[in-house]
Amino acid sequence: MKRLFAILLSLGLVLGLSFGANDVASAKTKVKTYKNCTALNKDYKGGVARTSSVKNKGGKTKYKPHVSKALYDANSSRDRDKDLIACER
């Protein structure tokens, strides 16, 4: 009886942990898509850059952009001048 209880308990723990890990992994892959640049600039004042090595083609900016490949890819339609920085200010 004790052995059966130990097996069922360990099986429950393994299954519980495996389902919990999937929820965390799926939460990390979701990236917010913004309706327009005004909405994006409320969260990221300088816009979003794809990499840290990109240069702004639009001239002088007031704020430094946040660097995130996933966030930029989700909002790449907001990059009008195609300099790999979306909604720069």
Radius of gyration: 22 Å
SS-derived structural category = mainly alpha
CA-CA gap between termini: 68 Å
Q: How are the strands ordered across the major sheet?
A: 2-1-3
Attribute tags:
mainly alpha, signal, 3 helices, 89 residues, Excalibur_Ca-bd_domain
Description:
This protein has a domain at 31-88. It has a three-stranded mixed beta sheet with strand order 2-1-3. With 89 residues, it is mainly alpha-helical. 46% of the residues lie in helices and 7% in strands. It has three helices and three strands. It has helices at residues 2-29, 37-43, 69-74; strands at 48-49, 66-67, 85-86. It is rod-shaped, with a radius of gyration of 22 Å. Residues 33-88 form the Excalibur calcium-binding domain. Keywords: Signal. Residues 1-21 form the signal peptide. It comes from Peribacillus simplex NBRC 15720 = DSM 1321. This is Excalibur calcium-binding domain-containing protein.
List the helices and strands and how they pair.
Blueprint: H1 2-29, H2 37-43, E1 48-49, E2 66-67, H3 69-74, E3 85-86
Parallel strand pairs: 1-2
Antiparallel strand pairs: 1-3
Signal peptide: 1-21
Keywords: Signal
Pfam families: Excalibur
